[in-house]
Design goal:
The chain is 29% helix and 31% strand. It has 3 helices and 6 strands, in the order βααβαββββ. It has helices at residues 10-14, 18-30, 43-56; strands at residues 5-8, 34-38, 64-69, 84-89, 93-99, 102-107.
C-alpha cells in the first residue's frame, strides 16, 4: 500500500476560512493521506479539528494523529500559530519524538 503525503503551502492555507481549512485537512486525512501544513493551524483551529474529528470517528476512521512546531513567541510572548503541522490517520501515523525543531514519526502502511 502506498502512503500519500500532501504538502500544503502557507499561501493556500491562508486563502481559506478556518472551517474550510479544517474540512480540507480532515477530508485529506480520512482518505488516508498525511497532511503537512506550512504555517500550521492556530491552537483554536487545532482544538476545533479534534472536536470535528471526534464526531466522525467510526470503525473505518479511528481518528487523527497531529503534531507541530510551535510558532516563535511574538509580542507579549503570545504564541499565535504553529510553524508547521503534520496530521495523519491514527492507524497510519504515530509521533515517536517531538522536540522544539524536530518531529519524528513512524508512518506504516496497513
Amino acid at each position: 500500500m502506498d502512503i500519500k503525503m500532501d504538502l500544503i503551502s502557507e499561501d493556500k492555507i491562508n486563502s481559506m476560512s478556518s472551517m474550510e481549512k479544517l474540512r480540507f485537512v480532515l477530508d485529506g486525512v480520512k482518505s488516508g493521506n498525511i497532511v503537512v501544513l506550512e504555517g500550521g493551524l492556530t491552537s483554536e483551529e487545532q482544538m476545533k479539528l479534534i472536536e470535528l474529528t471526534m464526531t466522525e470517528v467510526n470503525e473505518d476512521f479511528p481518528g487523527i494523529e497531529m503534531s507541530g512546531y510551535p510558532s516563535k513567541k511574538s509580542f507579549l510572548n503570545i504564541r499565535r500559530q504553529a510553524r508547521l503541522t503534520v496530521i495523519g490517520p491514527a492507524k497510519t501515523m504515530r509521533t515517536i519524538k517531538k522536540e522544539r525543531d524536530l518531529i519524528s514519526a513512524v508512518i506504516s502502511a496497513i
